[in-house]
């Protein structure tokens, strides 16, 4: 029996992804090995507890973390980790979340690290306490402090160095969580966060690690991981019962970590660099168009090109270009920076063979049409 | 007996269980390519045969081949999640006759998102604020007889449960903070206020009604029947009776409420439900699971299960003191079970020890022990592959014989 072409039947269009493995665009392309492992887990049933124990142990060995669990994504890891730090395994408290009366519920966060996803820290009932310096942190810690929070590789972050922040956490006996969701590749970041001594570390599974879309990792202290597990699925009355992780996602995530630990990152980086460079040469051959190849130094190591154009010559904005490419056939997704001058970014992570030239051709025709 | 014991010894290796059925029972799915890695063996995860049913803790349902094909299809083809959610939602709504539909990361997620939708009614500031319910309607009316393990999900987004026993209680409980009226079906102990009366009352009072019908399949047609009850929102588990993906479920109902529920969920970054991610393969797989379930007759389903049971019965019916009975559960869910009983004068084994002994075997066999019905042992064939039945029967025979 042939598999029907479901997306065509449903009228869901394929598209070209020149922006990267975003959740709203379906995340990263899974390693073929991950898909095989998922197939295996679909065919062969295991008790969830056995599977969670064994995969957790294996991921811990692979990453050097003391303990590990697979979550339903990085957000889920933040939620379950926060729930663990607030309840510390007290059944009555776990059963009561997000009502956090009578339990430590303050999470200390640097003002410069406030971001979109700190929303999930609040999901199980925590309150954010903003600080700006090491002195602030010391002053803010009190009996209601549940957790210190750190967002890895925020480019503008100079408020406090990681070793000092971790040392303060140790000194006061408060767990410290690091959200490193999108900082892989390079895999060196994963090893760094484990070595840095954070008590809990969160990673996205379906992005740089190229694991299942709705999977993530929570690594860290065995006691906290155990409590985080109790706050999650499949425990019936857990706060996180709704954030289910399928056995195929659990196993698939393990294989994604295995693969990412041994994979030749440098070769992949060079491959992507060659593609974006070629796109850059293609575009900058156009009058009034200029491109710069960049590699973020801190966040995930994903090369991209910035495309600038002479606003006198091409009377269109980055937002308009993004929309026009999205509305085109095939639809193309790119990154547009609305706050800076007219520039857009193109990446090669998700581009398939032959798609780079479609992206540049589309972009050129939009610019030309505006001239 | 020697023959049987020899086969059992051979099971120490972790081969795909479906392939071990022996000559009489051919494996249904023969892998075309060379076997790949045996992950469970590497990890020391013990294989087991699930004769208990599609429980989350045991890995959920056995997906139909159409569902796994659809998942594999979606795993290698990227589409924009919003487009996929729109298209699949529309198709599911057509199939079941609801105004709108969405796939969630399970029935519990459907309850969390549905509650959040009724509490915030699309107000973005309120959605961001959850679970802090200051200035937000957060009272959920629930019948005392409908209190159960999973009502926990109603409080995850910040809801508070208000217990009622009569229509008069509901009217008295109603106030400006009432967000939703919750209903559970089926219940073992009945309702204080039956479904039709509850729906009418909710409509009269202008309060959205929500029904948790998570476990009321199979048959799949129960979803269509459930929708026609008229609740504003109704939810189903995907990875159980509908045999869809493990971490998937359905939320069906009014267009505006499903829209709000979507806003409160992934991949919307500011939502309380951002942690409840559903992959594109799960989204599509859930649609195909529903389609397939609706197209399969109960008779075909029962025939498959009867055959599994007959292969188990073949292994144990000759044991002195053992009685077996295949029956259809009396509740709303038409599930077929095999009841196994024995004379404890002949086989000196109590029910709990039997369960423990089955778990200690390799492969282990999981069955259901019904504590409330005087400790009955029930087997379900819903997650059993063709071929696993014989092995399960052999393991059960071995355990019973060891105590005869």
Structural summary, described in words:
- The complex is a heterodimer of chains A (371) and B (404).
- Chain A is of the alpha/beta class and 371 residues long.
- Chain A folds into 2 domains: 6-22 and 265-370, Aspartate Aminotransferase, domain 1 (Alpha-Beta Complex); 31-262, Type I PLP-dependent aspartate aminotransferase-like (Major domain) (Aspartate Aminotransferase, domain 2), CATH 3.40.640.
- Chain A is built from 14 helices and 13 strands.
- Chain A has helices at 6-10, 32-43, 48-63, 74-87, 91-96, 119-122, 134-140, 162-172, 188-195, 222-230, 247-262, 265-284, 318-327, 355-370, and strands spanning 15-17, 67-71, 106-110, 127-131, 145-151, 176-179, 200-204, 216-220, 289-294, 304-309, 331-333, 335-336, 343-347.
- A 7-stranded mixed β-sheet of chain A has the order 2-8-7-6-5-3-4, with helices on both faces.
- The mean pLDDT of chain A is 94.
- Chain B has 404 residues and is an alpha/beta fold.
- Chain B has 2 domains: 2-62 and 297-402, Aspartate Aminotransferase, domain 1, CATH 3.90.1150.180; 79-295, 3-Layer(aba) Sandwich (Aspartate Aminotransferase, domain 2).
- In chain B, strand 5 (178-184), helix 8 (195-205) and strand 6 form a beta-alpha-beta unit.
- In chain B, helix 4 (81-96) packs parallel to helix 11 (280-295) and helix 12 (298-316) runs parallel beside helix 14.
- Chain B is globular and about 65 Å long.
- Residues 1-32 of chain B have low confidence and may be disordered.
- Classes of the chains: A alpha/beta (371), B alpha/beta (404).
- Chains A and B meet through helix 1, helix 2, helix 3, helix 4 and helix 6 of A and helix 2, helix 3, helix 4, helix 5 and helix 11 of B.
User: Which strands sit side by side, in order, in the main sheet of chain A?
Assistant: 2-8-7-6-5-3-4
Please, what is the CATH homologous superfamily of the largest domain in chain B?
Type I PLP-dependent aspartate aminotransferase-like (Major domain)
Range of strand content of chain A: 15-25%
Q: CATH homologous superfamily of the largest domain in chain A?
A: Type I PLP-dependent aspartate aminotransferase-like (Major domain)
Tally of domains of chain A: 2
At CATH level 2, the architecture of the largest domain in chain A is 3-Layer(aba) Sandwich
CATH top level class name of the largest domain in chain A: Alpha Beta
Tell me the overall shape of chain B. Answer: globular
The rounded Rg of chain B comes to 23 Å
What distance separates the N and C termini of chain A?
Answer: 52 Å
CATH topology term of the largest domain in chain A: Aspartate Aminotransferase, domain 2
CATH topology of the largest domain in chain B: Aspartate Aminotransferase, domain 2
Write down the secondary-structure element order of chain B. HHEHHEHHEEHEHEHEEHHHEEHEEEH
Number of strands of chain B: 13
Poorly predicted parts of chain B: 1-32
Largest interface: A-B, 82 and 86 residues
The CATH class name of the largest domain in chain B reads: Alpha Beta
């Amino acid at each position: 029996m042939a598999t029907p072409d479901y997306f065509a039947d449903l009228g869901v269009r394929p598209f070209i992804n020149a922006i990267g493995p975003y959740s709203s665009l379906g995340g990263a392309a899974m390693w073929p090995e991950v898909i095989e492992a998922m197939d295996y887990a679909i065919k062969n049933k295991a008790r969830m507890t056995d599977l969670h124990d064994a995969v957790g142990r294996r991921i811990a060995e692979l990453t050097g973390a003391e303990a590990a669990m697979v979550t339903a994504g990085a957000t889920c890891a933040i939620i379950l980790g926060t729930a663990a730090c607030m309840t510390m395994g007290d059944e009555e408290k776990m059963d009561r979340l997000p009502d956090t009366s009578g339990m430590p519920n303050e999470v200390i966060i640097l003002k410069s690290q406030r971001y979109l996803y700190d929303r999930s820290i609040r999901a199980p009932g925590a309150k954010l306490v903003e600080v700006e310096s090491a002195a602030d942190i010391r002053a803010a810690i009190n009996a209601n402090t549940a957790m210190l929070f750190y967002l890895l590789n925020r480019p503008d972050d100079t408020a406090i160095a990681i070793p000092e922040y971790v040392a303060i956490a140790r000194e006061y006996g408060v767990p410290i969580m690091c959200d490193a969701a999108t900082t892989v590749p390079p895999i060196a970041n994963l090893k760094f966060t484990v070595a840095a001594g954070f008590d809990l570390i969160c990673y996205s599974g379906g992005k740089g690690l190229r694991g299942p879309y709705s999977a993530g990792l929570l690594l860290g202290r065995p006691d906290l991981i155990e409590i985080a597990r109790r706050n999650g699925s499949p425990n019936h009355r857990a706060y996180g019962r709704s954030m289910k992780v399928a056995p195929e996602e659990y196993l698939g995530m393990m294989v994604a970590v295995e693969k990412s630990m041994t994979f030749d990152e440098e070769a992949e980086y060079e491959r992507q660099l060659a593609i974006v460079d070629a796109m850059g040469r293609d575009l900058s051959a156009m009058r009034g168009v200029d491109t710069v190849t960049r590699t973020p130094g801190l966040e995930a190591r994903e090369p991209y090109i910035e495309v600038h154009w002479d606003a006198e010559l091409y009377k269109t904005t980055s937002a308009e270009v993004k929309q026009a490419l999205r509305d085109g056939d095939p639809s193309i997704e790119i990154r547009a920076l609305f706050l800076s001058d007219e520039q857009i970014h193109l990446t090669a992570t998700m581009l398939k063979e032959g798609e780079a030239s479609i992206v540049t051709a589309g972009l050129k025709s939009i610019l030309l049409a505006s001239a | 007996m020697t023959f049987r014991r020899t086969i059992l010894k051979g099971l120490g290796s972790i081969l795909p269980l479906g392939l071990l059925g022996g000559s009489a029972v051919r494996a249904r799915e023969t892998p075309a390519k060379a076997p790949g890695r045996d992950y469970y063996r590497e990890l020391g995860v013990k294989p087991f045969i699930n004769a208990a049913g599609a429980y989350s803790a045991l890995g959920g349902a056995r997906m139909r081949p159409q569902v796994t094909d659809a998942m594999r299809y979606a795993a290698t083809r990227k589409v924009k999640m919003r487009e996929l959610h729109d298209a699949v939602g529309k198709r599911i709504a057509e199939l079941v006759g609801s105004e709108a539909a969405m796939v969630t990361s399970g029935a519990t997620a459907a309850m969390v998102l549905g509650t959040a939708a009724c509490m915030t009614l699309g107000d973005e500031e309120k959605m961001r604020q959850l679970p802090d319910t200051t200035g937000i309607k957060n009272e959920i009316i629930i019948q005392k007889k409908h209190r159960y393990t999973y009502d926990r999900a109603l409080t995850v987004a910040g809801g508070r449960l208000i217990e009622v026993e009569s229509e008069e209680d509901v009217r008295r409980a109603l106030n400006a903070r009432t967000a939703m009226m919750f209903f559970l079906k089926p219940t073992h102990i009945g309702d204080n206020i039956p479904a039709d009366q509850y729906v009418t009352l909710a409509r009269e009072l202008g309060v959205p009604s929500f029904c948790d019908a998570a476990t009321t399949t199979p048959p799949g047609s129960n979803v269509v029947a459930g929708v026609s009850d008229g609740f504003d929102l109704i939810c189903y588990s995907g990875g159980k009776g509908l045999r869809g993906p493990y971490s998937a479920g359905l939320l069906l109902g009014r267009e505006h409420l499903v829209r709000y529920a979507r806003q409160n969920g992934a991949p919307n970054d500011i939502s309380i439900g951002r942690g409840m991610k559903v992959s594109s393969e799960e989204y599509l797989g859930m649609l195909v699971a529903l389609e397939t379930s609706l197209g399969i007759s109960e008779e075909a389903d029962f025939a498959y299960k009867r055959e599994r049971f007959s292969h188990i019965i073949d292994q144990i019916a000759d044991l002195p003191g053992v009685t077996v009975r295949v029956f259809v559960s009396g509740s709303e869910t038409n599930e077929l079970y095999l009841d196994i009983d024995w004379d404890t004068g002949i086989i000196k084994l109590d029910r709990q020890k039997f369960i423990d002994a089955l778990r200690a075997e390799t492969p282990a066999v999981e069955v259901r022990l019904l504590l409330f019905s005087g400790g009955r042992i029930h087997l379900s064939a819903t997650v059993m592959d063709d071929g696993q039945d014989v092995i399960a029967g052999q393991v059960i025979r071995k355990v019973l014989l060891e105590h005869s």
